[in-house]
Amino acid sequence: MITPEIKQQLSSIVGSDWVKDSPNELYAYSYDATPMFQSLPDIVVMPATSGEVSALLRLANEHGIPVIPRGSGTNLAASTIPVQGGLVLQLHRMNRIHEIDTQNLTATVGPGVITADLHQAVEAYGLFYPPDPGSMRISTLGGNLSQCAGGMRGLKYGVTKDYVIGLEYVLPSGEIFRCGGKNVKDVAGYDMTRLLVGSEGTLAVITEITLKLLPLPETKRTLLAFFTSLVDAAKTVEQVIAAKIIPATMEFMDQGTMRVVDEYARLGLPLEMKSMLLIEQDGPEELVSKDIASIAEIARANGAASVEVAATLEEGAKLLTARRSALSALSRIKPTTIMEDATVPRSRLADMVAEVERIADKYDLQICTFGHAGDGNLHPTCMTDERNKQEIERVEQAFAEIFAVAIALGGTITGEHGVGLAKLNYLPLKVGEGGIELMRRIKAAFDPNHIMNPGKIFAGSARRRMVVRR
Predict the structure, then answer these.
(1) How many beta carbons lie within 10 A of that of residue 70, not counting itself?
(2) Tens digit of pLDDT for each residue in 148-177?
(3) What pTM does this model have?
């Protein structure tokens, strides 16, 4: 409980302007981008420095107040829902790009920096930060780190964890630690950096991030391939990789997604096709041209009904922007849009898409599938209405079956969204009860009083329901 005395102490740490507790302000922080999860915090506090974060955590730890670190709230796992009330630690004021080091090819940033802003800043130096989550124009780097966000360039370049090389972080005790740094090699002790990436705010608060950068690719080209068969599209993905070609982006859309995206973006797609691949390659001009020609040949050999190469960089960028709009386009169909992610080995991609279609028919649901074909990460997306309780029951049953199928195919319950509150019931399918218990023991070492983002990843149970604390 936040007493007047505690509120005064919070105000003395960050200033009264940065402590919010009006009903409207609390409501604004009661939800994130995950549909149908909601719970009111008791207070919202906005620190600007590591020292302020340290003092706030010491105070919260002393009084047993839950702390929920938060960026822009764009996550799709209900990871920033304050299910036990408490203190939302909004980190958007820590939004400085402290350094772009062109000698070591690193950037050091605050957790509140918007992902797309870093892209723009480093590209001005001819450098490149590859992770590109769909929410990159809104999401913060601290949020990307907490969820280990992916994106369309994951096949060739990896995800957030592959670029985080150093951290400053604060424990619930208020102690400030550093791990990693600018060294290319560092195996001194346990890899605390990798442990904290993807920990969803359950272990510590990240206050500074050092990121690896790459040289900006010389050029890029985009190709579209359309198929009358899901199997042919999946075979194309497999054979492109088998040919030792690693595209920067290799995206998949099923027919339902194509239709909605085309209506939204007016691309003139051939909507009689069963599926499409959107492939981008980047690098030196000669290599890019060679790879795109080879990919086109492989697609045609695997039954592609049509293969088109974007004539200009601008046309290619338009196509990629349209793919990024898939969730927005689908969200126009019904009041509630639930986008999940399940990942399988590339060789099981067609099996997974077929299973999603089967499950959608079984439960009489509208589920469209798109995603990152090159790394097997699919986004089955259900358009529904949370007011229809019977349908929501079927949605829950359908996604439970989808995750079980992903595991049976050698995959996982989440490739880039994280576990949070939305998927904690499914985590034992992947890691087992022994794995859950080991995670609990790790959390207890960092957070013995269990104040850090409680109720997430492996604690308790959750159903996809609107639950508002009042």
Answers:
(1) 27
(2) 999 999 999 999 999 999 999 999 999 999
(3) 0.94
